[in-house]
Every structure is written in structure tokens, then in C-alpha cells.
Amino acid sequence: MKIADFARQLESVSGGAVVYSRVIPSTLPQYADLNSPLPERLNHYLLKRDLKLYRHQAETYDRARSGAHIMITTPTASGKTLAFNLAVFGSLEADPNATALYLYPLKALTQDQLGTLERLEAETGINVNAAIYDGDTPEHQRPTIRESSRIILTNPYALHQYLPWHHKWRRFFRNLRYVVLDESHVYRGVFGSNISLLLRRLRRIAKHYGAEPQFILSSATLANAEEHGKNLTGLDFELVDRSGAPQGERHFLFWNSQAQKSRSIHRQTSDLLAYCVNEQLQTLCFASSRKLAELVAKWAQQASSKSKIASYRAGYSADERREIERNFRAGELRGLASTTALELGIDIGSLDAVLISGYPGTVISTWQMAGRAGRGAQPSLITLMAFENPLDQYFMKHPEQFFSRPHEYAIVDLENPYILLGHTMCASAELPVHMDRDSQYFGVKMAQSLRSLEEQKLVQKTPAGYVYRGMARPTEVVGLDRISDRSIQVLYDGQVLESMDLRRAYEEAHPGAVLLHRGDSFIIKDLDLTAGIAHAVKEEVDYHTSLAHTSDVTIRKRYYGRKTPLGELLLGEVRVHEEFGGYRVRKGDQTLELHGLDLPPLDFETVALWFTLPGELGRQILKEGLDWAGGLHAAEHSLIAITPFHAMCDRWDIGGLSTTLHPDTREATIFIYDGYEGGIGIAEKAYELFSDLVETTHQLVKDCACEDGCPSCIYSPKCGNNNEPLDKLAAVKILDALKG
Amino acid sequence: MAVSLDRIARRLRERVESTVESGLFTSENQQPFGLSHLSPTDFARSMKLKGELLLEFKDRALAEYYDTEERENEYGACLKITHHAELGIELCTAATCIEEFSRELKLLYGIGPSVESKLRTLGYETLSDLLEHPRWGSSAKEMIQCLDESNAKALQSHIHRWFPISHPLSCKLISLVDPAQIKFFDLESLGLFGRPILLFGTAQITESGLEVVQYLVRNIMEELPALIEIAKVLGVEPALVTYNGRAFDTNLLEERWGYYGLNVEFDPVHFDLLHPARRCFRDKLPDAKLSTVESYYGLTRQIDLPGSLVPDFYNTYLETQNIGPLIPIIEHNKQDLITLAVLLTEFSR
């Protein structure tokens, strides 16, 4: 069946669930000739493969060869990889010593890219000895790779650990011509700030060996792609954003799960996945959690016995994932339910249809997922399925809003003193830090940073520069993100079934939990937190489990405070405390039983700002028939939504809490805290800029054209309470009063 | 209000320190046979020792106790300390070494235990017997040439290619080396890598025993000049004798040269005695720490400082400028070098 017919048919059988459909017209390929001719062997490769370069590929090649740093933002599957590989191979052919470093945010992506590079290497005969060098690289292969590979693929976490060993990489750094950073949109917020300083450390070391590599970045579409490139690397970029790749017609449907009240969104997702697969469409479904990916695949498989449907997520072994990817590419697997693990460019081929079960929280992610659909010029289907929450529902009511919404900004903070100080310390263990030579990398405050580090006896000033003298390896102390080192291994039959971080183990591997793994269900018998081991037994059950938890914030220490028109604004240390009282046994969408659980609470200490609001204001708001709690909650959400623009972070870097009565302040209080153990400077900055923050937030909510809230003002994509309760009008009153 | 850099730096230091501590007390953890960690009792004993040393050596200078000399070069200065140790060092003779080598047919590519025994039944006992052999003749010739040239480095790489790194033949190669090239070598540093070296210890064989020369970094800024001095002393192609030097000492040395951007040519033939020691003492001793191995030979240390506490003692010296905590570091390093000479005598016999 044709996609257009299928889309129409789906609309008619959906029982009103398809609330909107839009056809994004196809585009024709646009080719271009190169200004500078390709080297013979690359040219031959294109001819043999019958490849003509699209406009953006030619543009990338030409500009890269002219020496510019390039940021490519053309869509998924537009041939970005070939574009930068041609430029790199061109340079590596011209200079037999030249090297290139490819950085990927995930190990799975390096695996994928290695295959591509090896094929290109074999077919062009240009010898680059491409190799992966990361934590999985066997010790005995490492010296050979360092000494002879000309393209090395790795990830930022590994690079962070290897930079101090630069003398062993002398040959590689001395000849470093290109650094390729794929999927660079993921480097935003605190993670992005860390990466930008990691890249400055890399540039400083390359410079030490006489190299100034060119950077090629690829990214999903961003509101500020060029700026993002500059922030990440400190260099000026040229943008290549007009794709010349053809795109088939895309049918975009909005599916509101609320139309079928009797069936949960997850059931509807699996129904739809099975339906697409049964109609011969190879379909990828994005589910909103690991458990849902498992459940949706399992249910869809039950409803579609003829075709194979599987699940895909982090936590599977590399071999398991490779196998699934291979089978999907080959078309043996007809349906796949995945977490966001497949949002980035792992090669699974192109598909007929993509289902997105629940709005993923950003426009960037939604389009990245949608970009998986479409084989060349073939038409394809994308369905965005809405959950019950107000954010998802908003798009169902205002679908045009979705298409006209700008892509998000990628925000990177180059002045965050926590991050700067940490990386300056790392740098001082790599090469002595020179006051004048190195301030171009570590900012105008570098001199002050070094003095503070010297005061703490972490570095010492010497004629050669500032030398690290602390007691531990800096790269062990300074992390790039929040991922905790503590991991729990789930064992089944003496073998590791999967490993997961501690927080996830609480969620999925507590005693009694049903852990789904590739469609099989396992029951967790015990969880030993000290040993980091959980034991599972295989048992086919028709129920699943979900953890019940509550969290609160307690004030530990007040740094300083000031008056606001309504009460007090404070900055200090808080403890975020999570309790895990038990878990629910659920069948389908129904809760069957509740079980108690004996897990120690999880605490983390961080820095927060908080402000109090007088009970009088609450009484006034209630008198006007508005919701006091909903107003506080909405004000908290909107403040958090605006904070990234003032405090240079990502929304996911911060957390918040609002309450009509907090035990420590004995008043209505709103907290905004850093999502990093020990704090990372965001609340601190928001505290300084608090009146600007309130001003902008007030304006945003007041001027938002929506009636009672929308994703642009008070809906949060990461709310733990499903965006309830929320009261926009009350929030405007609170913010107005706070502004004074 | 400005964010306080000092507060953030203090927090960083706390994290640095807690990272160290967690690495320090892991004695309960199962360590592989070899180097192991410090126990809380040893820690307490060492802290007491440090207190006593601070009292004993208050306002004293190293020159009062050691033969010291100020060394200066274009990058600054450091302190050279010289000791002489009387010791009988006896290495096997070159003839014995060559003899044993020429009987080891398995060194040739393609000859395993079964081929070897077959060859022996056919009357091929030595490399020279194989010279006319159609299959092994040319590689036998190559090996004999290495022996004739006393090319210890090439011979060692042949051994390491086919045998475990701990193979007894490896140590015997030392007899082919010019004795002036033999450098016992041991470093004391602030950490496993990425941190400064504070004492460079090296020793050479003399008529009466051993001359131990140490370069002390009295202040972090003396590390660079000391790195230059040690490069001169070791030379380009020394025969280095170390204990775990493959994994640690040479790695750190080259890392620090690289850290300061020094381009040092360094291509040693390396005799790392940790490997034969592990092989030799696997069933006799609980671990292969140098101090444990020493006790097997009846050598005892007057004051012993566990290696993992060297940074702590050194930092106390930096803070107080009292030489007390340096004394056990200097002695520890010297003793390590002497023990190395004893072990070399044992293993090359």
C-alpha cells in the first residue's frame, strides 16, 4: 500500500485519534560540482559507486579544503558522513603523515563509523589504519594504534583520560589535521561546557606539538549552530545547512491517545506498531523508557505473529545491539521499539515509518527521531503520539505550533568557575600552564583561577609555568557529566545480564522487580548494594512493576541572602532526598498490588537558591478562585525554563521544587537547584541575576498567547508530577508581586 | 556578588584528597600477587615515625648527613646526593650466558617444544648445529650474530617474543652489557603518573660495590632541572635495572620529560626484576613487594616507609622545610637500589 493511502486509512480507523495530519512535500536532489577537483582515488571511488555529490557535500569539501572550520547541520541521512570523510581522506592522501581524530558521544557510534571508514579505506586504497581507541581497546593493541593509525575514533570520556598521556601520542598530535565532532548538539548545558574546555585542552596540546587542526562539526538543526561551534571550540565556523539530498514526501500525523480512553497510550503504541508492521511498513517506534520499549515490543509481537518485532535500548551488550541493528538493516526485523538510544545516528538503515510515543521534550529530538523515516526519495510516515500530560496535549490542540516552533538553543557556559577551575587543574597536569600563552584557552579569569588553585596547593608556580602537584589524578576528580561510576550488575545464571547505574538499579533491579530483557521477563531476587550485584531468575509473568518514590529538599547551610519584595531570597546548600517506600505490581494499566521495599534513601547534596512567599499572597490568590499550589508550581516551571538563558545551562541541568509550606522556611517556598552533586554554579548565577530572571519570566508567562498554559511558558518536559497542578494566572500574579 | 573561586578551589582540593584516601586503604581487597596496599596499622606507625623525625631533624641540613652537591643547569638547580655501598655483586659471565643461549633452540621462529625435542633426537643440540639446517639455518645464523655482537636488546626482544617476560635467560643477558652502562634506577614521586617526581635514584657498579646517586627535588620547580640531570646520567642507551620499571618508573620518567616538552632520546635495554621475582617467589612469599623480597635475603631496613606514603612525607617536608620526613624517602630509595643489585646477582646466576 502506498504511504499516502495508508495514512488516510489510519486516520479513518483511528477512531478520532488522528487529530492532525500534514504532508511535508518531497524535495529533489540538488547536485553541485567541486571547485577544487577531488584526488584521483576519491574521484574513482565516487564514479565506481555511481555517486554524485549533493550540494552540501560539495560545499563541505570545498570549504574544508580552503581551511575553514565547518559546522554541518543538514538532516539525518543526508550524507553528512561522506561529506566530511571526503575532506579528511583528501587531506590524508595528500600528506602521508596527516592524522585525524573523530569524536563520538557514544561507543556504539564509533563502532558504526569504523565500519564506514574501513570500507572507504578499502575502496579508495587510501591507507589510514582507522582504529577505535577507548576503554574497550585491548592493552596490547594500544601502542600500535598510537604509533600507526591515522584516523582514531574515540569518545570525550576517553579523550579526557588520555590527554595527560600526550607524549605517547606525539606522532598523532604532531600531524593532527582534522578533528571531527559528530552529533555535536548533544554537547550542551553543563556537559557541553565540559566538552568545550576538553576541546581547548586538546587544542593546547596539539599546539604544543605544532598542530592547529581544523574542526568539522556535525549537528542536528539548532537555533544557534554557528555560535555553538564557536563556543565548543573557540574557533570561527562556516555553516553548511542547506541540504541537497532528496527527500521523499513525509506524512506527519498527530495521534491523541485521549481519543481511546479505554486503552492506555502504551497499548495504543503497540497496536499502532503492529498495525504498521502488518501492513508491510518497516517501523521504528521511540518509547519513552527502557521498560516501555520492552513492553511495546512484546505486545506488538503478540499482535503480529508473522513478522519479527524486537526491542532496543542501552543496557544490552554490544553484541546484542549489533545483532539487532544488523537484522533491522537487513529487513529481517520489521519492527523495533527503542529508547532514545537510536536517536543518534547509529546505522539501522532508513525506514518506512517512525512512531514517537510521547513528545520527547525538545524540538531537536523530535526532528532527529522523525529523520529516521524515509528511504531516499520514498514517501514515509511519522506519527507523534501524545500522552495525557498538558505538554503533549498542547501540541495536539495546537499542531501548527509544533511546526513553527524554532529549534532550541544549545547553551554552553565558558565562564562557569566550577568547570573552568576543574579543567584548568586538568590542564596543569598535562603541560605546565603559562599565564599569557594559555589564557586564550582558559579565559580571562585564568590568572585568578591559578591563584586559587595555588592557594589550595593543587598547583605550584614554577619558571616553566604552573605545575600540578595535587595528590590524585585530576581527570579522576573532574567528570564530564553526571553519570555516576557506581554500577550494579544484574546476574542471571552466573552471567551478567546487564549492568546499570545505581539510580536505575533502584528503578529496575530492586527485589521483586520485573526486569524485561529482549522480550524475556526476569524477576529480581535480591539486590546487594555493597557488592553491586543483583540476582535475577527467568520467569514468564504477565505483570510488570513500578517503583514508588517521594522526594524532598532540606536546607543544610545558608551562604547568603537578600530581601525580595515578597520575602527572602537565599543561596545555600541543600540535600535532595529520595525515599523508596515500595513498588506497584501492575498488569496492563491496572495496579494489582503494592509491596513494601527496604532500600536506603538516595541523597545528594547540591547548591540551591530558594525564595519564600507570604501566606497572605496565597490567601489572596485563593480568594480570587485561583490555585495557589498550581501557581507556585507553574512559576517554578517557568523560572526553570528561563534559567538556561540567564545562567547558561541546559534545562536538564537543574531541578526544582515548590511547596505551599516548607518545613525549614515555614512558608511557601520555591527551590531551584543544580542537578550536580556539590553544585555546579547554576543556582549561584541565577541568584546573582535573580531580578532579571524574574522579570523575563514574568514577561514570558504574561505575554504568552496561550489561554491556560503551554510548553512555551509553564509546561515542563521533565516534570515529575505530570505538569499537575498548574495555574497560569496565579503564576502571573506571583511573578508580578515578586518583581515588585 | 562574585562567585568565590577560593571556595570552589577548596572543594576541589577536598575531592582530590578524598580520592587519594579511598585509594590508600584497600588492604582488604584482594590484590594480584605482586604490589599490594597499605594497612591502617602501617599508616599509624608511619605517622608516628613522621612526628619523631620532625623533632629529631628540626633545623638540620641534609649536608650534615650526606655527601651532597648543588647541581645547576640552564633550567635551575637540584641537589645531588651520593652514597657508597659495599657489596659483592657477581653477575654470570658472558660465556655462560652465550652457552645457555645457544642451547635454547625454541628462540627461533617456528620451533616449539615438540620440534625442539625432535631436533635433539636428530643430534641438533645448539644453534651452531642448526647452521646447515635447510629450514632453521638462516634464523640460527641471525641469532648467533646477535650473540657475537652482544646485542642484548635484540636478544631480549627474541626472548620476550616467545617466552614469558619473567624467563630466567632474560636477566642473564646483563652479562653481555658493558658494566658502565648498567644503571639501577628507581623513582619516588607524588603519584603514579601525572604528578611530579621528587627523587631520582640511580646506582652504578663500582669495584667495591655500588655508587648510589640521587637527585632530590627540594621544591617542585627543581623537577625540570633534575629531569635534565637524570637524562645526562642515564644516557641514551643504558642497561636499566628496575623493579616494576616497565610499568612505572620509565613510563613516569618519559611522561615528565614530555610534560615539560623535553625531547629526550632514550632507548634503554630494560631489566625489570619484578617479573623474575614474581616467578621466583610465587610459592615462597606472600607478595612480591621489594621489602618482602629483601627479608627473604635477610636484608632489613632500619626505618621503612611504605611507598604509598612518600607523597605525604614529602608534602610535610615542603610545608615545614624540616628535612626529617625526607630522610626515610632518601633511605628507602637507596635501599631499593641496593636490593636491586642483590637481586640482579641472584637472578643472573
3D structure, described in words:
Chain A has 740 residues and is of the alpha/beta class. Chain A has five domains: 3-25 and 246-404, P-loop containing nucleotide triphosphate hydrolases (Rossmann fold), CATH 3.40.50; 43-240, P-loop containing nucleotide triphosphate hydrolases (Rossmann fold), CATH 3.40.50; 417-477; 487-541, no CATH class; 557-575 and 601-739. In chain A, strands 1-9-14-13-10-12-11 form a seven-stranded mixed beta sheet, with helices on both faces. Chain B has 14 helices and seven strands. Chain B has helices spanning 5-24, 40-56, 94-103, 113-121, 127-130, 137-148, 152-162, 168-172, 223-234, 249-259, 274-281, 290-296, 310-320, 326-348, and strands at residues 67-73, 76-86, 182-189, 197-205, 209-216, 239-242, 269-272. Chain B folds into two domains: 49-86 and 177-348, 2-Layer Sandwich (Nucleotidyltransferase, domain 5); 94-168, no CATH class. In chain B, helix 10 links the parallel strand 6 and strand 7 (269-272). Chain B has 349 residues and is of the alpha/beta class. The N and C termini of chain B lie far apart (72 Å). At the A-B interface, helix 17, helix 19, strand 15, helix 20 and helix 24 of A face helix 1 and helix 10 of B.
Question: Which secondary structure elements does this structure contain, and how are they paired or packed?
Answer:
The complex is a heterodimer of chains A (740) and B (349).
Chain A: H1 3-13, E1 18-24, H2 40-48, H3 55-65, E2 69-72, H4 80-94, E3 99-103, H5 107-124, E4 131-132, H6 142-148, E5 151-154, H7 156-162, H8 170-174, E6 176-181, H9 189-208, E7 214-218, H10 225-233, E8 237-240, E9 250-256, H11 265-278, E10 283-286, H12 290-303, E11 308-312, H13 318-329, E12 333-338, E13 353-357, H14 363-370, E14 380-386, H15 390-397, H16 399-404, H17 417-428, H18 435-442, H19 446-455, E15 459-462, E16 465-468, H20 474-477, E17 487-492, E18 495-501, H21 502-508, E19 514-517, E20 520-528, E21 533-538, E22 544-563, E23 568-587, E24 590-596, E25 602-613, H22 615-623, H23 628-647, E26 654-662, E27 667-674, H24 682-688, H25 690-703, H26 728-739
Helix pairs in contact in A: 3-4, 9-17, 11-12, 17-19, 23-25, 23-26, 25-26
Chain B: H1 5-24, H2 40-56, E1 67-73, E2 76-86, H3 94-103, H4 113-121, H5 127-130, H6 137-148, H7 152-162, H8 168-172, E3 182-189, E4 197-205, E5 209-216, H9 223-234, E6 239-242, H10 249-259, E7 269-272, H11 274-281, H12 290-296, H13 310-320, H14 326-348
Parallel strand pairs in B: 3-6, 6-7
Antiparallel strand pairs in B: 1-2, 2-5, 3-4, 4-5
